[in-house]
Amino acid sequence: MGEHGHHTILGFDRYAFNFWVLMIFTAIEVVAVALTFSMKGTVSMDVVVFILVSVGIVKGVGISAIFMHLQGDPDSRVLTATALFPVFFIVVMILFIGLTHPGAADTLPDWCRPGFYS
Amino acid sequence: MEAGGDVFHMLFDEWNFWSAIVMIIVSVWLFHHSLKYRAKDGKSMGESCDEFIPGVFPKENDNLKMELTWTIVPFILIVYLTYIAWGPLDEMWSADPDAHEIGVTANQWFWDFDCMADDPEDAETIGQQNVAYNDDGEVICEISTIDVEGETKPLLRVKAEQSLAFIMTSNDVTHAPFFLDWGIKEDTQPGMETRLYYTPSVDEVGSSLLMCTEYCGKQHSTMTAVVEVFA
Amino acid sequence: MLSIHKNRRIITIFGLLLVALIFAPSAQSYPYGVSGVQDAGCTCHGQSLSPDVVPELEGLPIELEPGGTYLLNISFTGGPSGENPEALALGGFHLWTSAGTLANVDEMVKINPDGSATHNGIDATDTGQGNDQTEWQVEWTAPMDGGAKFILHTNSVNGDGTSGGDYYNRLNLEIGPQPVEQARGLVVLASAIFLMASITFGTTTWVFYRRDPGAFAWERFWPFLSDYLTSTDHKKVGTLYMVNGLFFLGVGGIFALIFRLQLASPGNDFLTQDEYNQFFTMHGTTMIFLAAMPMIAGFANWIVPLQIGAPDLALPRMNALAFWLNPAAALLIFTGIFSGQGADTGWTGYAPYVVSNTAHSGATLWVAGQILLVASSTVAGINFMTTFCTMRAPGMGWMQMPLFSWSMLIATLMLFISIPAFGIGLIQVLLDRTIGTVFYEVAAGGDPLLWSHLFWYFGHPEVYVVVLPAFGVISEVLSTSARRTIFGYKSMVFALAGIGILGFIVYGHHMFTSGMSPVLRFVTMLTTMLVAVPTGIKVFNWLQTMHGGSLVYRTHTLWALGFLVTFTLGGISGMYFPAVAMDLHLHETYFVVAHFHYVFVGGIIFGLYSGIYYWFPKATGRMMNEKVGVIHFITGFISYNLVFWPMHRLGIQGMPRRQHTYFITTDEYFALPAEAADWNMLITIAAFMFFASNLILVYNMVSSGLRGQKAPSDPWGGWSMEWMVSSPPPTPSHNPSDLPVQQFAEIHDEGEPGLFGRMIEWMMIPEESHGGEEE
Amino acid sequence: MSYGHDDHDHGHHHQHSHWGPHDWEFDYGHGVIGGAPHNSWAPIMIALGSSLFLLGFTKVFTQSWNDANNVWDYAIHSSQIGTLIVGLAVMFAGFFVWWRQDWSFDGTYEPKAIGTPFQSIDLRKVAIWMFLMSEMMVFSSLFSTYIRYRTGFDNCIELFETTHAAGGVIEPGTACWLPASYFIAEGGYHQENANAVLQFMPDTLIPGAINTFALIISSYTIVLALKTAKDTSLSDAERNSKVGKYLLTTLALATLFLCFKLIEWFVGFEIGDHDHPIFYAPSLMEDHFTIHASEYTYCHLYDEAAHACTPGYDAIFDIRMSASTFYVTTGTHGVHVFGGMVALAYMVLKAFRGGYTPQNAVSIEYFGLYWHFVDLVWVLVFPAFYLY
Q1: How far is D317 from C493, CA to CA, in rounded Å?
Q2: Average pLDDT value for residue range D299-317
Q3: Which of C250, C563, D25, D83 is deepest in the core (most CB within 10 A)?
Q4: Which CATH class is domain D123-387?
Q5: Ranges B166-170, C546-550, C719-723, D77-81: which has the least confidence
Q6: Residue D262 pLDDT exceeds 90
Q7: Set of chain C residues whose Cβ sits within 8 Å of the Cβ of D335
Q8: Rounded CA separation C2/C7 (Å)
Q9: Looking at the partner chain, which of B89, B95, B189 has a beta carbon nearest the beta carbon of A114?
């Protein structure tokens, strides 16, 4: 796919650019977590979780869009559709299996009960 | 005595009625079409048959109005049935605060009931004998043994009109007590507590066999007990 | 032709493997099993039985008094015991009795969980622990009725702390009236499966012989066989799948017949509880995974490339790999069944029983076998999805694909998305049972509901995967027999897609009583109610297809109409479960068994039989015998309904499923009404009739395959592309250099695509020009 | 039982060797070349091999029930390794046959999609994407298990703090969740003697970080291998060697990843002498973070001087669940990396033999898609298991 034209981002070669983005973000991730644990108690875990999640999403989009040719190729649109197809089933699985551990909810919320309306 | 509680029979009759209607419609439609549109001599083509040529996608044969009707009408029936089925959920799943709690512990291949007497000194804990009283001294729950086909099995006697809350757990694998006459069952999961709320009515007086209805190994079928409702 | 030079290399490879296998120490076979060692049950130290060890059992009366207790002295003389003065142990014993109960009088004897008695020596070097003496005492209470059989093993030990140089002997004793010797369930099963295997092999050889008897020679048999073993042609792999599927349908049927004998009357003891548990587990696993899915894969392999105008499947060798993983998995799933230790966990294999010590040891390999089936389904899924997406004939757009191919597409998609969840659940159970992870170990906080969720996330889409191809067959058969296009092609496709999506969010209805979180019970109750609507649309469309047509009555038409009746009944009885209040009564009763047999057998098996009669001429070039077919339909339909309709009634009366016996009402307690015993007897008899009626199909396939009259390329006047090629189709099915182009009976000009159409267009059609916009 | 006449002697007319050419180049005569069946022993060998392997696996790890204290005795019966080795041998022989038949494929007949919407996309690229969809479901099942258990359990550290603060006594053996990040990101209780150059980061986190960087670099080298394979301006010899070298670096990085992971699990890193090491990252086994750790002594406050846990600040927890989910999820990812390594070994051989011309470069892209997916999974697994 030696296409011309759009294989550079901000002037750099898109793969090299993506590579360095990934390296830098991984370093951020590791350093953030290491700092949090070594300075116990100063940074709350939610900040770390937020960093991890956002960095994870950026790296994920980077890899799939550029490295896996899901963007900028003639066939990338239909392959993106194929790649995103299982997302519905993954969301159902995470909701139905991941977030319903036994202690999670042991009674039906009131608005689900017929008594609530009569 | 009859298997299944009144809630079950109310819903069951409703479902039977609508199932009969749907089945009649389908059967009449099926037999009428399969007999009326029979090929007389096996070769003749009916007036509105389609000419099939291999490799040629045939003419369209659909009618939007009909297809919409047999999408919407069953949907309405389903919504109606869901509404009816939604009714009993309330009393099935709501904890009645002053219900008397009965502990049900399932083990590999025997049941272990516990009347959880309100104040301990009332409960004579001699062997299996375990009794609980309500405020005005009447016995509301009593455990003893009974002989089922040559083996001694636990007998749980509960008082009619007394609202009960079964607190169920298991010591090893999943089991499930099936109260045949009341038409209810719930799994006893190890490491978890599941609950069943029921108030036996007066006309459910009598004793019925309690069977294990979640596969639990070798003697799954002989893991029985007897539940007796007394006036 | 495989030259001898290559033959030798293959023979050496397999010879080497066999030798390696022999040297690899084989699994220690458990004492009880087909060989009848069950009664003795002692893995004595010494390997060799020697006559000079004389075991004795005194204290048994001449005249047995029912219920009496007797003090028995067990002793032995002879053998190496006692010769070496500073012996660590002198001997041991194992006493098993067929009736009554053994009890120990001193701590020199211990009673095992299965009721037999042994010396209390923990291990050989233990002194003063019951294995450093040569006589023991044990108390036996006689049963209330009938006599008893004793088997005593005594072991004379030279006390050197090792198991070498010890000898044992065995003594059989009988007292009182002996029950008539029954054929043991396992022996019946072993002979039945051996019979099935020899019939299949015999038929294959006979078919090879009958093809051209003149040229019959054993050397040509190996090339004929090896052509199938190594074939990657979608037609040959399809035939392999069908043979595999029908064989295991027979084996699954045999399991059912044997435990139906057990359930024929209450309190029956033809099968022990262990054997019954193994048989219903193996019946479920075999029927779904080794019979129904391979038969559907057989149809898919045969018909899909022909229907969509492809020369073969996208990845031919992956196709063969997907097939061969099935028999490889069957090997593992069935291990242990003959040693009496097969999996006894139910086909759903609920945790924590499947990882508990009370489950049989065969369950580990049963789980490992199913992991291979997951691999096979994933590989097949990749293959078929690629074929559907990329290899449709030119001009055949998505909305021009025949409905059987559409149903296979949605079925493969559902299977392919849901089966990894099952695979991960199985791997977790396999690791729990082998290396000791604790996914389902309750003591370590393992959650049994996780297995139910993972299993049924796969389980419910799985039952749709199995039934959708039958829908596809019925759409094809009814449309061709009634000589009318299928009514509402577009709504049929959208109904299939609807089932595909809804199938994933309804699985909670299997777990209404399992303590799952109530929110999920409520959500899945609503979605399960909804799932009936798309299936209803399909049934009404089938019925309307026959309107104005001229129905040609062939066997496949009869089976299709039979399907419409039984599947509709099954679908309606299924609607009783979403109402949670009713499900609390009906769950795990025979009403559930009745429902899914109406949908499985009445739906899938009838649909596949209709498909066999419909496509047999295309696959083999021979017409099937219609008269034998009608007999098969009539006997099959009647006996099928006799077997499964009464189960509804038993279910409402509360007969639990998966139970070795059932209880009839007595005056102390209310249980099943007396009529339940008669219904069960009827079900057993009808089950034997239904099994016999299926053999008519086997006869019909084998005989008309060889002597049926020649079949034209389009015997029934169908329109889809498989009727364009000759029957049997050439290899490759459609010539890759000039693939058939899809024609259209009426060209309806597609207007300007609406918003939805434009979005699909934007996504689906690759942009031609490369100068795409700069990002 | 196909009853058609035994179609013409199934010999291959001009086929030069039994092992090739590739499936899709089957000559039906009179110039028609196309994809068609071509008998191969590979499928049946791989299937039987995997069946024997699983039989062997269960025999090696047969466990026995210990009646006395009601627990499984896990044992490794190494004497039973025979069937497992035979199974692996047969499976590998099957793969060998499979690739031997693919060896001579030079891209002349790369099948393209016919029907919309995948018009003219390489057919095997669609196959790889279907495979990745299935893999997505595999890893989302593992993640669902992880999320379900992690939200279901209470964290050991918080449990200790709350009960300790309330003066309660923790009953030994309570099941709670001690995340792997306690051992890796926090360096466990003996964090003080880890005098890493970076001071703020415990030594134990460094191998994990290096692994992540290794995978990202290997993703990049695969992309470069693909670019050079497609680069028509290079001479054949030069291109073969460059593509070969890039693939070799990817293989090396993948091996590094697996070695670091296994060392991190079982062996541990130690540079310098034992009592004051320059770099000391004990293995997870050494820290007793194992799937059998039902009695893990957790030490909340480590008394450096006495080289022991300050009395009253330790408790006995059952942390087997966090260990099980950690080892199985990272193990499954490890198996996928190993699978990639096996395929890479084949591709390196083929690259140096000149197999990847610009016309056949697309098969590197297929492997690249799989490899980037494995890297993408690590992008999610690494923070979830190592850092949080």
Answers
A1: 55
A2: 83
A3: C563
A4: mainly alpha
A5: D77-81
A6: yes
A7: none
A8: 7
A9: B89
Residue D202 vs residue D17, higher pLDDT: D202
Q: How many CB atoms lie within 10 A of CB D277?
A: 16
| pLDDT above 50 (res C465) | yes
Q: Which of C350, C518, C723 sits opposite B174 (nearest CB)?
A: C350
Contact in structure between D174 and D380 (CB atoms under 8 Å): no
Contacts (Cβ under 8 Å, ≥6 apart) of B28 = none
**Which residues of chain C from 684 to 723 reach within 8 Å of chain D, CB to CB?**
701-702, 705-706
**Structural domain of A40:** 8-117
Q: What Rg do the C-alpha atoms of chain C give, in angstroms?
A: 31
Q: What is the mean pLDDT of residues A66-73?
A: 82
- Per CATH, is B98-230 categorized as 3.90.420.10? no
Mean pLDDT rounded to a whole number for chain D: 83
Q: At CA A73, angle to CA A70 and CA A77, rounded to 5? A: 55
Query: What domain count does chain A have?
Result: 1
Q: Which of B90, B189, B192 sits opposite A114 (nearest CB)?
A: B90
Q: Of C258, C333, C245, C329, give the one whose Cα is nearest residue C293.
A: C245
Residue A70 has pLDDT above 80, yes or no: yes
What's CA D253's distance to the chain center, in Å?
13
Helix axes C590-599, C448-481, angle to 10 degrees: 40
Q: Where are the domains of chain D?
A: 123-387
Q: What is the pLDDT of residues C74-99, one digit of tens each?
A: 888 887 777 777 776 777 888 888 77
Query: Which chains lie within 8 Å of chain A at 3 or more CB pairs, if any?
Result: B, C, D
- Here the ipTM equals 0.91
Domain contains A13: yes
In sign, the C-alpha dihedral spanning C246, C679, C346, C332 is: negative
Domains in chain C, ordered, with CATH? 37-175 (2.60.40.2410), 184-263 (no CATH)
Sequence-distant (6+) residues with CB within 8 A of B36 are none
Cα C115 from Cα C705, distance rounded (Å): 56
In angstroms, rounded to a whole number, what is the distance separating the alpha carbons of residues A118 and B87? 11
**pLDDT surpasses 80 at C34:** no
C216-255 pLDDT, tens digit each: 777 788 888 888 888 888 999 999 999 999 999 999 999 9
Touching check for A101 and chain C: CB below 8 Å? yes
Instruction: Give the mean model confidence (pLDDT) for residues D282-310.
Output: 85
Residue A3 in domain? no
Q: Helices marked H in chain D — which ranges?
A: 42-60, 81-102, 123-152, 156-165, 180-184, 205-230, 236-262, 320-352, 362-381
Q: Which two tokens stand for residue C408?
A: 């296979």
Interface subset of C 639-698, CB within 8 angstroms of B? 652-654, 656, 658-663, 668-671
Q: How far is Cα D348 from Cα C522, in angstroms, rounded to an integer?
A: 55
Phi, psi of D64 (to 5 degrees): -120, 150
Inter-chain CB proximity B87 and A114 less than 8 Å: yes
From residue B199, alpha-carbon distances to B100, B140, B191, B196, C630 in Å are 10, 12, 26, 10, 55
For chain B, which residues make up each domain, given as ranges? Answer: 6-34+51-91, 98-230
Q: Is the Cβ pair A94, D147 closer than 8 Å?
A: yes
pLDDT at C184: 61
Residue D117 in contact with partner chain A when CB distance is under 8 A: yes
For residues C142 and C149, the answer to whether their CB atoms sit within 8 Å is no
Q: Which tokens sit at C607?
A: 């649909």
Query: Roughly how many angstroms between the first and final C-alpha of chain D, as a whole number?
Result: 58
Task: Quote the CA–CA distance of D371 and A68 in Å, as a whole number.
Answer: 9
Answer whether residue A1 is part of any domain: no
Q: Is residue A83 part of a domain?
A: yes
Which residue from C minimizes the CA distance to D118?
C390
Q: Taking a C-beta distance cutoff of 8 angstroms, is the pair C292, C466 a contact? A: yes
